[in-house]
Specification:
- This protein has 468 residues and is an alpha/beta fold.
- The protein folds into three domains: 129 residues, Rossmann fold (3-Layer(aba) Sandwich), CATH 3.40.50; 109 residues, Alpha Horseshoe (Serine Threonine Protein Phosphatase 5, Tetratricopeptide repeat), CATH 1.25.40.80; 172 residues, DNA Cyclobutane Dipyrimidine Photolyase, subunit A, domain 3 (Orthogonal Bundle), CATH 1.10.579.
- 48% of the residues lie in helices and 7% in strands.
- The protein is built from 21 helices and six strands.
- Strands 1, 2, 3, 4, 5 and 6 form a six-stranded parallel β-sheet that branches.
- α5 packs across α11.
- The termini are far apart.
- Bound molecules: flavin-adenine dinucleotide (FAD).
- Its cofactor is (6R)-5,10-methylene-5,6,7,8-tetrahydrofolate; FAD.
- Keywords: Chromophore, FAD, Flavoprotein, Lyase.
- Belongs to the DNA photolyase family.
- It comes from Vagococcus carniphilus.
């Protein structure tokens, strides 16, 4: 019989639950077909997310081939593709995949499941993208947690799933033909690769992800607690984009850290992995939270949509250097440091009172590590409308935050070269330069760099009233 492994956001061979299961289920007479469906609904052409995902998929197909695993692309409507496959491989009996457990992916998986079963194909699925699945951790009365701290206590007390190291493809029969059948998929895949504006090839894939993890665990985990808030330091793992494409398994990340000696850095890092599970759980119980505020009383807030201000924020032209440097980092690299995500989201929602949903959508286009649950969770946290969110009266001051977390302007200078030759105190507040100073440094506020688009003090006072 023919068995099928259907890859999706789990682009790895190592510790891939569905793949491992498929391999152990095969009989000597069976053959394995590995596929990836190029789903038009999920293309985000022109976005960093598209470029990053397709660079990863390209790397995955090539490196899997080197290890003897052949991956084929399906194109067009999913059900027609399955129908064609069934005609091509009449003995197709089984399919294995790791479930996409939310949003569009979940709906697709559920319909695919019914469709396949109606064709008498046995479907075996797994939930494996988190350390604890969404419904696994509940309060003693069975209801879901709303606050992180009690959730985390329970999360910590439970044992974590094991990691299966080293992938060795057993001696199984694989479909290796360069048949006509997969030509269309191949053509589309090449086109999608060509549509990339940025080629992330050098930083993607299983090997890079493991190198990054090992480097982080050996050299940075210990100091993670002290360094993780400073965007000028490479103090965080940068594993989020690998986790979002599935180039590395969350179990591997967890166990690599767990094996290290105790330290505050280790504890804090593991807590971040719990936040990832927490937001996943919240999203599961509130699948509509991309549309509406979790806290009901805030659903009536008259969020603004001012396009001019929104564009200034998007393009890093707000006149607040730490905000602008962060937004340009996002535009240029597709990634942004966590502290900066909190700051720019606070600035958009509290200083500009612009709808957090617009910010969330913009992040979805730009982020190479886009993850709906963490992103919506992060935005609702910053907008004070989510579960366990920052209270509305705690509004970040972008200037003091810049001085505190980028004291020597290492980060700001990288992304705002127009400020790089000024002394640090003016880099943090260029608009406070006197005419004499502007002349001395041949720098014109409002021309070389924008004046602040809002006065933070006034904006803060206004936001406090607005929320009240
Ligand atoms: P590290 O500090 O090394 O953390 C390790 C891992 O823990 C991360 O890779 C991530 O998987 C997880 N993690 C860390 N912080 C959080 C958090 N606050 N919430 C959930 N998981 C966390 N993270 C995403 O993966 N995708 C997103 O789309 C996303 N959008 C965000 C939007 C906003 C407004 C905010 C405030 C945060 C968002 N985050 C998102 C969370 C966090 O900013 C990133 O996970 C982190 O910056 C990724 O960098 P890192 O891998 O170096 O993190």
């Amino acid at each position: 019989a023919t068995h099928m492994m259907w890859f999706r956001k789990d682009l790895r061979l190592e510790d891939n639950t569905a793949l491992n299961y498929a391999l152990t289920s095969l009989d000597k007479k069976d053959q394995l077909l590995c596929v990836f469906h190029l789903d038009e609904q999920q293309f985000r052409i022109g976005c960093h997310a598209h470029d990053y995902f397709f660079s990863t998929l390209n790397n995955f197909q090539k490196s899997a081939k080197e290890k003897g695993v052949f991956i084929y692309f399906l194109s067009g409507d999913l059900f027609s593709a399955f129908d064609n496959l069934k005609q091509q491989f009449p003995d197709w009996s089984d399919i294995y995949f790791n479930l996409d457990n939310r949003g569009y992916g979940l709906k697709r998986d559920l319909t695919a499941l019914h469709f396949l079963e109606s064709k008498e194909i046995r479907v075996t699925t797994f939930e494996e993208n988190h350390l604890h699945q969404a419904t696994e951790i509940t309060k003693p009365d069975g209801s879901s947690y709303k606050k992180f701290t009690p959730y985390y206590k329970r999360w910590l007390s439970l044992s974590k799933p094991m990691f299966q190291p080293d992938f060795n493809i057993p001696n199984i029969k694989q479909i290796k033909q360069d048949s006509e059948f997969f030509k269309e998929g191949d053509k589309l895949f090449k086109k999608l690769l060509d549509l990339r504006q940025t080629d992330f090839s050098l930083e993607v894939g299983e090997e890079r992800a493991t190198e990054r993890l090992n480097d982080f665990v050996l050299n940075q985990l210990d100091s993670y607690e002290q360094e993780r808030d400073f965007p000028g330091i490479d103090g965080t793992s940068r594993l989020s984009s690998h986790l979002s494409t599935g180039s590395i398994s969350i179990r591997k990340v967890f166990h690599a850290c767990q094996a290290m000696p105790s330290s505050n850095g280790k504890d804090t890092f593991i807590k971040e992995l719990a936040w990832r599970d927490f937001y996943h759980m919240i999203y599961h119980y509130h699948p509509d939270q991309y549309k509406e505020e979790l806290i009901e009383k805030y659903r009536q807030l008259p969020w603004q949509t001012n396009e001019e201000l929104f564009n200034q924020w998007k393009n890093g032209q707000t006149g607040y250097p730490i905000i602008d440097a962060a937004m340009r980092q996002l535009q240029q690299t597709g990634w942004m440091h966590n502290r900066l995500r909190m700051l720019v989201a606070s600035f958009l929602t509290k200083d500009l009172l612009i709808d957090w949903r617009l910010g969330e959508r913009y992040f979805a286009e730009q982020l190479i590590d886009y993850d709906a649950a963490s992103n919506i969770g992060g935005w609702q946290w910053a907008a004070s409308t989510g579960t366990d969110a920052v209270p509305y009266f705690r509004i970040f001051n972008p200037t003091t935050q810049g001085k505190k977390f980028d004291k020597d302007c290492l980060f700001i200078k990288t992304y705002l070269p127009e400020l790089a030759s000024l002394p640090a105190k003016f880099i943090h507040e260029p608009s406070t330069m006197s005419s004499k100073k502007q002349e001395e440094f041949q720098f014109q506020v409002g021309i070389d760099y924008p004046k602040p688009i809002v006065d933070h003090k006034l904006a803060r006072a206004f936001a406090l009233e607005w929320f009240k």
